[in-house]
Amino acid sequence: MSARLTKAHFESIAQSRNHKLIGSWQYENIDSIISIRCHCGHEWSCTARSYKNAKTGCQECKNKAISKVQTGKNVSVPMAKKLAIEFLNKQRFAKLLVKRGL
């Protein structure tokens, strides 16, 4: 049987990830909803299980990291979304052309 997790355990995880637990919440079980603030100021909520297993994180920081890897430079989140939509539309159009034999 595993040790019972506590609010202090999740505060420790948050500190190690440069996050902060926000709001007043009571840890009841692994499916409790927690709210987190990233060092960049973005806030989100998820289950304690998801956060503990590193399944969730700051979407803003994730988008910036993806942009840096793909383009080699930092772009804003709206611009990254616009570029992603354009890329997907071009892929769909190319598949349609191949399908129609053009």
What would you note in describing this structure?
There is one protein chain. The chain is α+β, with helices and mostly antiparallel strands and 102 residues long. The protein folds into 2 domains: 1-57, no CATH class; 58-102. It has 4 helices and 3 strands. It has helices at 7-16, 48-52, 59-71, 77-100; strands at residues 19-22, 33-38, 43-47. The protein has a 3-stranded antiparallel sheet. Strand 2 (33-38) and strand 3 (43-47) form a beta hairpin. The longest helix has 24 residues, at 77-100. The protein is elongated. The N and C termini lie far apart (61 Å). The model has no long low-confidence stretch (mean pLDDT 78).
Give the topology, please.
Blueprint: H1 7-16, E1 19-22, E2 33-38, E3 43-47, H2 48-52, H3 59-71, H4 77-100
Antiparallel strand pairs: 1-2, 2-3
Nutshell version of this structure?
The protein is of the alpha+beta class. The protein is built from 4 helices and 3 strands. It has 2 domains: 1-57, no CATH class; 58-102.
Gross morphology: elongated
Instruction: Report how far apart the termini are.
Output: 61 Å
Q: Compute the number of strand runs.
A: 3
Proportion of residues in helical segments: 40-55%
Domain count: the total is 2
What is the H/E string? HEEEHHH
Strand sequence of the main sheet, in spatial order? Answer: 1-2-3
Main sheet overview: 3 strands, antiparallel
Name a few traits of the molecule.
102 residues; alpha+beta
